[in-house]
Amino acid sequence: SLECDFWAQDCPLGEKCMPWANDGGSSWNALRCSPIDEDPDAVGEPCIVEGSGTSGIDSCDAGSMCWDVDPDTLEGYCVAFCVGSPEDPMCEDPYQSCSLPSDGVLALCFPLCDPLLQDCAEGQACYGIDDVFNCVPDASGEMGAAGDACEFINVCDPGNFCASAELVPGCPGMTGCCSPFCNVNEMPPACLPGQECMPWYEDGSAPPGYENVGACALSM
Fold this sequence. Notes:
Elements: E1 15-20, E2 30-35, E3 46-48, E4 64-67, E5 75-80, E6 83-84, E7 89-90, E8 96-99, E9 108-111, E10 124-129, E11 132-137, E12 149-150, E13 160-164, E14 176-183, E15 195-199, E16 213-218
Antiparallel strand pairs: 1-2, 3-5, 4-5, 6-7, 8-9, 10-11, 12-14, 13-14, 14-16, 15-16
């Protein structure tokens, strides 16, 4: 399998440049040219991977990859790659924004969302990633309520985010605990005892429509 340039998508006809784990591990660390399925699945449709979620071989069309793969059934759904360049990554769909997880080996487009409305598809939640809010699979399982320990962005229930331990009262987690999003204009805020509703964005930097988004936090 040829190495390739993700942003140039410079693979031969009928192939696409895909992230994969060249050591057979569970995290993407390299790029390879992979065959495009003869009857490919479109962005948003269910898909299947070959071998594992990091094999780099899936049933999604060019410009996309199979994401949130179930390790037992090998099924996920197709997510679009970002376009542009590493310096200026963007999404073809204006209602999505580009996220660069896994140290930039991946560049994926996720739907924008409102953390106060939690307006994502079933099984997903609206989390703050970099400076925007995206719909990402909710991996909280039984845990994830406000006050529960967390170490990753997407292990808190919808309506909560993974906050630093010192911002959550009685937090048992070393790294952090789930804390509610809140509306800065709502009194009293829907926070844990002792917390205040702090604006998510600094003064004047909130994107349009996100001015009232806040985070519940103990005042430092």
